[in-house]
From TrEMBL:
Entries under CDD domains matching the protein: LysM (cd00118)
Transmembrane regions: 20-38
Keywords: Membrane, Transmembrane, Transmembrane helix
Organism whose genome encodes this protein: Anaeromicrobium sediminis
Gene3D superfamilies: LysM domain
Organism placement in taxonomy: Bacteria, Bacillati, Bacillota, Clostridia, Peptostreptococcales
Residue span, LysM domain: 50-100
Family annotation (SUPFAM superfamilies): LysM domain
Name the UniProt record assigns to this protein: LysM domain-containing protein
The keyword Transmembrane helix is assigned to this record: yes
InterPro entries to which the protein is assigned, alphabetical: LysM, LysM_dom_sf
RNA-binding recorded as keyword: no
Amino acid sequence: MFGGSLVLEFILKYKKENTIILIILIAGIFLCSTVYGVNNTPLKEKGNYIEIYIEKGDTIWTIAKKFTSKEDDIRKTVHIIGEINNLNSWDIYPGQSIKVPAK
């Protein structure tokens, strides 16, 4: 009982200061998630696509390589190409058009 009353007394004494600190922390977390969350939106959700036509010798991998920056993972681009084009297999054919994420 003694320890519980000390905790209660501490909470009551510092309630106002703790509330202000908590509000500042929540605001900071929200601000950081908003600022950094915008850049992490998947390309599929952004809708920034380019339509290209498949040429002889093209593969999803070679196309993804052309549209992936050095900082990004090419496997992610391959996956996105498959998703936005509803590909059931990785087979593509000359003359076929597909959407790819814009750089």
